[in-house]
């Protein structure tokens, strides 16, 4: 028994670091990491979640995915595949293409379009999140990597890891495509173009503080209101510089003109039940 213990102590001594400087560096670096709240490297790899990674690199992350739409054509009902990209930081959407046959040549052309130096949606230094769909062929992957974009392929059967792209698919289907009967590819393209414009400029987003993504400057227009009064009392007109949506908004929203200011003096008497302005003899 004593011999076994001696052999055990010999093995433990052989595992100790032979260089004294290595042990001293460990005692120096560990307190520094602990002071700044940074765990050691093995623990750091196990404690960093996918959600923390997404929020940390939001501005350089782009996700892509496919969804389908049923379109009536002369040959019957055809399933079209829509490929889109979404920038996670700004929620900007780019519909890269629409086709019933997403073969390799089509995917290669899409990759060339989105990696164009001047007007491409992707740029060097970004990360592209995509699933393991076979449509992302090796030629598509090679063009993306040659443009300086790092691919992040997701594990199989994990749509929750591409939640931003999946949420936009739900939005475009529930708010647009499921409410339409599409006849021909042109109608599908037109519907997608109009919805993307609405998504960018007119729809508020809860994840971005309930604000518009890319608001456009509203043009102030002059709305002319004409009140025609019956019973021979004549007519009058009034002009206001209210915006169209503010003129029809009678809920008391900020910026909307008061309703009574848009009414003429004669119309006020009619609302009170009088037949006209009272004249004192």
What's this model, at a glance?
This protein is 37% helix and 20% strand. With 281 residues, the chain is of the alpha/beta class.
List the helices and strands and how they pair.
Elements: H1 2-15, H2 20-35, H3 41-47, H4 50-56, E1 61-73, E2 76-87, E3 93-99, H5 104-114, E4 127-130, H6 138-146, E5 150-153, H7 163-175, H8 185-201, E6 204-205, E7 211-212, E8 223-228, E9 235-240, H9 244-247, H10 265-271
Parallel strand pairs: 1-4, 4-5
Antiparallel strand pairs: 1-2, 2-3, 6-7, 8-9
Can you walk me through this structure?
The chain is an alpha/beta fold. The chain has two domains: 56-212, Nucleotidyltransferase, domain 5, CATH 3.30.420; 223-271, no CATH class. Helix content is 37%, strand content 20%. The chain has a five-stranded mixed beta sheet with strand order 3-2-1-4-5, with helices on both faces. A two-stranded antiparallel ribbon has the order 6-7. The protein has a two-stranded antiparallel ribbon with strand order 8-9. The longest helix is centred in the last third of the chain and has 17 residues, at 185-201. It is globular.
Largest sheet: 5 strands, mixed
The helix-strand sequence is HHHHEEEHEHEHHEEEEHH
Strand content: 15-25%
End-to-end gap: 130 Å
Main sheet: strand order: 3-2-1-4-5
Structural class: alpha/beta
Shape: globular
Mean pLDDT, all residues: 76
CATH superfamily of the largest domain: Ribonuclease H-like superfamily/Ribonuclease H
The CATH class name of the largest domain reads: Alpha Beta
Number of domains: 2
- Based on the structure given, which CATH architecture of the largest domain is correct? 2-Layer Sandwich
Helix content: 25-40%
